[in-house]
UniProtKB/TrEMBL annotation:
Keywords associated with the record: Hydrolase
GO terms of biological process kind: protein deubiquitination
Protein's name in the database: UBP47 hydrolase
GO-annotated cellular components: cytosol; nucleus
Pfam family, one: UCH
Gene Ontology MF terms: cysteine-type deubiquitinase activity
Length: 217
């Protein structure tokens, strides 16, 4: 009962150690009582780095100016260390003592499914077979095992606690009257910026949901 009532802390980690990963994010949603050491262990397992070979520093979140590495050996909980429940806590994963993080060696006999269990967000590029140093794709392409479902339906990637929005979008898409009405609407670029036009972006999203060959977009 107490665990269910415990506040959760959303951590968004940017790996700045590699040009291939600098634009990607790893998201963790942790109980507020999580020790700092456990935070580092979870990050290490998600990105495929050896524990203790990287640092975490505060990112560009609101009211955060401290760039001192977070003490992974501290007995503090993430709440005591300044992480805020109910907000996005941005962190940068950086080199430790000037050396890049060590890649976690793959265990012999590891299957594709178990390798992919440690990834959050976009999965490996096609043909990468779960390489630890290529755990996300800047182009958001998915591995061949994540091709379109046999059902013919396409999912939506969770962008850090957006399941409620994804459910609404899928419900609207599966309502033919709404979907067809949206398709009939014509965008006038001279009157509005396509980037900020919600109907236009929703129209594009519906087209992808209907035509994409990916399992999720």
């Amino acid at each position: 009962e107490s665990a269910a009532e415990e506040p959760r802390v959303l951590c968004i980690i940017q790996d700045t150690t590699n040009s291939k990963t600098v634009n990607e994010r790893v998201t963790l949603n942790l109980p507020a009582s999580t020790p700092l050491k456990r935070l580092f262990e979870d990050v290490a397992s998600k990105v495929g780095y050896v524990y203790g070979t990287f640092d975490l520093v505060w990112g560009n979140g609101d009211n955060v100016t401290d760039t001192t590495p977070i003490d992974q050996n501290s007995d503090k909980t993430i709440l005591d260390a300044g992480f805020e429940p109910g907000k996005k806590n941005f962190l940068h994963l950086t080199d430790k003592d000037g050396e890049q993080p060590h890649i976690m060696p793959e265990e012999s006999g590891t299957t594709d499914d178990s390798v992919q269990d440690r990834f959050i967000g976009p999965l490996p590029r096609e043909g990468s077979v779960g390489c630890s140093n290529d755990y996300v794709s800047q182009s958001y392409s998915y591995s061949s095992v994540l091709s379109k479902s046999e059902t013919g339906y396409v999912g939506l990637v969770n962008q850090a606690m957006t399941c409620y929005l994804n459910s609404l979008l899928q419900t609207l898409f599966m309502t033919p009257e709404f979907r067809n009405a949206l398709y009939k609407w014509e965008f006038e670029e001279s009157e509005e910026d396509p980037v900020t036009s919600i109907p236009y972006q929703l129209q594009r999203l519906f087209v992808l949901l209907q035509t994409s060959k990916k399992r999720a977009i």
